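Before our next group meeting I need something from you. Please put the record directly below this note.
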Amino acid sequence: MRGQVQGNGRSGGPSGGQGGMAWVRLLVYLLFFSGILSIVLYTLFGPLSRLRGALACLAWLMLFVLAEVSSRSSENRKLAALDEKERLESVERIQQLMSKLNEKSRALNDSYGNERLLLSDLTGAASLLKPSADLEASKMEYEILTGLTRLDFLCDKAIAGTDRSGDFRKELDSLSSKLRSRERL
C-alpha cells in the first residue's frame, strides 16, 4: 500500500516516496561519516587528545542512534494512533448501520414483530461496543459490516413482500450471533 499512494511522501512517485527516503538516508549517513572523519582528523592533526577524540566519536554515534530511536518511536506512535482511529471508525460504522436498519425495520409488517424487537435489541448492543485491538474483533467487525449490508438489502425485500424464503430472518439470526460474539471481546 505504501507504494500505491502518491503525494504523501510514502509513494514511489515524484513527490518524494521511496526514492526521496533513500536520498534522506544517504544524506544522514554522509553526515554521520563526515562527522566521524572530521573528529578523527582533528584528533590526528589537531590539539584534541586521542581519548577525547574517541569520546567525541562515541558522542557523535550516540547522537545518531538516539535520533533514529526517536524517529522510530514517533512513527510507532503515529501508527498506533491511526490504528485506534480505524478501530473506532469501524465500531461507529456498525452502530450507524444498525441504527439505520432499526429505523428501516419499522416499515416491516406485523409478521416481523419479533425481528423488529431483535433489531432494536441489537441496536442497543451495538451502541455499547467498544473498539478492541484484538485481531479477532477486527475480523468479526468486518463480518458484521458485511452482514449488515446484506441484511439491509434483505430488509428491503421483506418490506416489499418478496422475501418468501425467509432469508431476512436467517441473516438476522446470523448477525445476532456475530454481534453477541463480538460483544464478548
